[in-house]
């Protein structure tokens, strides 16, 4: 099982919108195994999307359990994932295997409800928060052709941002 | 082979400073590296990494007409251009309170002793002229962990400033 090559910005393939997974078979299982090995090969990497290895299907893995002090669900496999509810917002620092040597501040929902399929096509529901919720939002962005660079906020003004009331 | 220089520019703020300075550099054959540019108390300040094949004096000459026409003061130092080796901060500290002399010295001395390496510090004076407040953001590396930094801040806050420390957990995905 190989470590896959990771696409690096400005590779145009990172902007592809990934297609939904339709077949739940051995090929899918093998790909997810490779994706997981590739994720663990990256230093401190807590998530990886299929788009990042040039496989434009709606598949990603998140596993923040290496950060032992952070509440987590262990390894989460995302297949055709949807965020069905968002609550709160928080600024946090993100980097990306596809954007070497740069990290920046990004605003994400603080808590999310995630609906996804597992490797056998069974529906799963997760309530996630904080760092783990951030990781899922970062990976789903990849499936929609977005990088954290698309969501950067200024480091000078992020803490005292004026609240907008609607 | 190009050399790296740090170009420092200071002058009274007005529109167009960045565009004029960087255009002169571009037309003179320079490449730009990392930069910090901001308005500080009505002045515009630039710290800019410039890569150039010539000498510091040739660089000074290149921007001479722009700096004199915009009434800017420029200073150039030869530097090592260490790109692609960013250090990620693991702690963010915000300090604020009624403005008075010595806040920065006291807070940063206490933090340095507790193992903080400052990567980035930005501060503003807000409030009114009669009652100014001082706000400072620091991002840095806690080389001895978060605990000693929090203890240092606890001591500093006894003197009347407010301080908040947040660990920065960078997500790599």
Describe what this molecule looks like in 3D.
The complex is a heterodimer of chains A (166) and B (173). Helix content of chain A is 18%, strand content 34%. By secondary structure, chain A is an alpha+beta fold. Chain A has one domain (12-151): Peptide deformylase (Peptide Deformylase), CATH 3.90.45.10. Chain A has a 5-stranded antiparallel sheet, with helices on both faces. In chain B, the strands form 2 sheets. A 4-stranded antiparallel sheet of chain B has the order 2-3-1-4, covered by helices on one side. Chain B has a 4-stranded antiparallel sheet with strand order 6-7-5-8, with helices on one face. Chain B is α+β, with helices and mostly antiparallel strands. Chain B contains 4 helices and 9 strands, in the order βαββαββαββαββ. The model of chain B has no long low-confidence stretch (mean pLDDT 96). Helix content of chain B is 28%, strand content 45%. Chain B folds into 2 domains: 3-79, Alpha-Beta Plaits (2-Layer Sandwich); 91-167, Alpha-Beta Plaits (2-Layer Sandwich). Chain A binds chain B through residues 42-49, 62, 67, 70, 92-97, 100-103, 131, 134-135, 138-139, 142, 155-156, 159-160, and chain B through 38, 84-86, 88-89, 92, 94, 120, 122, 135, 137, 139, 168-173.
């Amino acid at each position: 099982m190989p470590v896959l090559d990771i696409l690096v910005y400005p590779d145009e393939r990172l902007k592809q919108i990934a297609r939904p997974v339709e077949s739940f078979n051995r090929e899918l299982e093998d790909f997810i195994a490779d994706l997981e090995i590739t994720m663990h090969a990256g230093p401190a990497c807590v998530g990886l999307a299929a788009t990042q290895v040039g496989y434009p299907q709606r598949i990603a893995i998140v596993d923040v359990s290496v950060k032992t002090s952070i509440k987590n669900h262990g390894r989460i496999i995302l297949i055709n994932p949807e965020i069905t509810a968002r609550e709160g917002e928080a600024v946090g620092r993100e980097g990306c295997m596809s954007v070497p040597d740069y990290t920046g501040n990004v605003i994400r929902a603080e808590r999310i409800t995630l609906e996804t399929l597992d490797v056998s096509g069974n529906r799963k529901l997760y309530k996630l928060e904080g760092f783990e919720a951030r990781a899922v939002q970062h990976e789903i962005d990849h499936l929609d052709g977005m990088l954290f660079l698309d969501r950067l906020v200024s480091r000078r003004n992020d803490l005292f941002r004026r609240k907008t009331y609607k | 082979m190009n050399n790296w220089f740090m170009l420092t520019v200071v002058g009274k703020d007005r529109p167009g400073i960045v565009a004029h300075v960087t255009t002169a550099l571009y037309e003179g054959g320079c490449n730009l590296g990392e930069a910090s540019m901001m308005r500080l108390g009505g002045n515009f300040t630039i710290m800019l990494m410039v890569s150039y094949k010539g000498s510091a004096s040739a660089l000074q000459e290149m921007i001479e007409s722009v700096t004199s026409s915009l009434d800017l003061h420029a200073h150039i130092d030869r530097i090592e251009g260490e790109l692609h080796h960013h250090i990620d901060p693991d702690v963010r500290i915000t300090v604020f309170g009624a403005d008075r002399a010595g806040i920065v010295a006291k807070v940063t001395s206490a933090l340095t002793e507790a193992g903080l390496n400052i990567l980035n510090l930005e501060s503003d004076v807000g409030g009114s002229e009669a009652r100014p407040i001082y706000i400072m953001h620091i991002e840095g590396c806690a080389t001895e962990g978060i605990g000693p930094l929090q203890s240092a801040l606890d001591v500093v806050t006894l003197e009347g400033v407010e301080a908040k420390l947040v660990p920065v957990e960078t997500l790599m995905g």
